């Protein structure tokens, strides 16, 4: 079969993409938000504070459900909002739905309850493993929960292939945590830890879910509102993360973060003023 210039170009692109391996340079910190963007996010936190958030249990629960449901939808969960609410309120599973989907939602609820009730949760290996353990209950084999993987994994939607060696994963996680502890800007810190934990893919599965919870622990530790992921921004979230996997640029994820964060903060402020 004749190989045209177009075919050759396709082959070259595929070769480049197939070599999209883990890049240690991504872990080097570079400022993410501009001063104006930080000012905007700070203003949002001033108009509705984290203290006000926690002083209203109905808000904690309502927006917690939104975060849980959107987090599940990202992972392909088939429960509707009504079915998910029934499950989490009354413990009644939806007819015809897989056990995995129900257990995922239950685990997400337990993890959300944990990060919104426990005090002084530190960002370290123990916390990352603990969050992963809560999220993995009943979904992974016990010998794969809370520990570094030692096999190759593939990520849907991208040709990026993470590290495989367990020792390398441990070393890179140490680097992520060490760098995280040097960052002063609270929003930079949150995005840095989220994107790089997701990029590392330390566990055999349930990495993005773990990263989203760690991101919110980081924000709340700095007295900032958590990022309550909304269903309408799911595609933006995925696009932003894949863009980071493939380019090392935070730009698309940052755009998603600002859009989603602004929407939630404004909704909360409207509730306060209604």
Give the secondary structure arrangement, pairings included.
Blueprint: H1 5-18, H2 35-47, H3 50-54, H4 57-74, H5 81-90, H6 99-117, H7 125-136, H8 166-180, H9 186-200, H10 207-221, H11 234-247, H12 251-273
Describe this protein's structure:
The N and C termini lie far apart (69 Å). Helix content is 63%, strand content 0%. With 274 residues, the protein is mostly helical. It has a single domain, classed as Fic-like fold. It is globular, with a radius of gyration of 19 Å. The longest helix has 23 residues, at 251-273.
Keywords for this entry:
single chain, 274 residues, mainly alpha, Fic-like fold, 12 helices, 63% helix
What's the quick description here?
This protein has 274 residues and is mainly alpha-helical. It has twelve helices and no strands.
Mean pLDDT: 93
**Number of DSSP helical runs:** 12
Distance between the termini: 69 Å
Q: Indicate the overall shape.
A: globular
CATH class value: Mainly Alpha
The CATH H-level homologous superfamily: Fido-like domain
Q: Specify the biggest β-sheet.
A: none
**CATH architecture assignment:** Orthogonal Bundle
Q: Mind telling me the C-alpha Rg?
A: 19 Å
């Amino acid at each position: 079969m004749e190989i045209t210039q177009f075919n050759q170009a396709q082959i070259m692109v595929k070769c480049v993409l197939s070599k999209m391996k883990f890049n240690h340079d991504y872990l080097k910190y570079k400022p993410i938000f501009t001063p104006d963007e930080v000012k905007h996010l700070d203003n949002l936190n001033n108009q509705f504070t984290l203290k006000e958030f926690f002083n209203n249990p109905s808000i904690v629960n309502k927006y917690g459900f939104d975060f849980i449901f959107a987090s599940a939808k990202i992972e392909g969960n088939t429960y509707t909002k009504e079915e998910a609410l029934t499950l989490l309120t009354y413990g009644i599973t939806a007819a015809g739905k897989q056990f995995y989907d129900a257990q995922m939602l239950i685990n997400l609820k337990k993890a959300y309850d944990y990060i919104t009730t426990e005090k002084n949760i530190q960002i370290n290996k123990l916390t990352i493993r603990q969050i992963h353990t809560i999220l993995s209950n009943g979904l992974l084999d016990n010998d794969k929960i809370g520990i570094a993987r030692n096999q190759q994994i593939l990520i849907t939607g991208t040709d990026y292939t993470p590290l495989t060696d367990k020792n390398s994963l441990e070393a890179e996680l140490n680097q992520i945590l060490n760098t995280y502890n040097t960052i002063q800007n609270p929003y930079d810190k949150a995005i840095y830890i989220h994107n790089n934990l997701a990029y590392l893919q330390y566990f055999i599965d349930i990495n993005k879910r773990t990263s989203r919870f760690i991101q919110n622990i980081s924000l709340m530790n700095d007295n900032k509102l958590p990022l309550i992921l909304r269903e309408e921004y799911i595609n933006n979230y995925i696009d932003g993360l894949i863009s980071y996997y493939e380019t090392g640029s935070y730009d698309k994820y940052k755009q998603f973060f600002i859009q989603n964060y602004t929407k939630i903060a404004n909704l909360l402020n409207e509730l306060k003023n209604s």
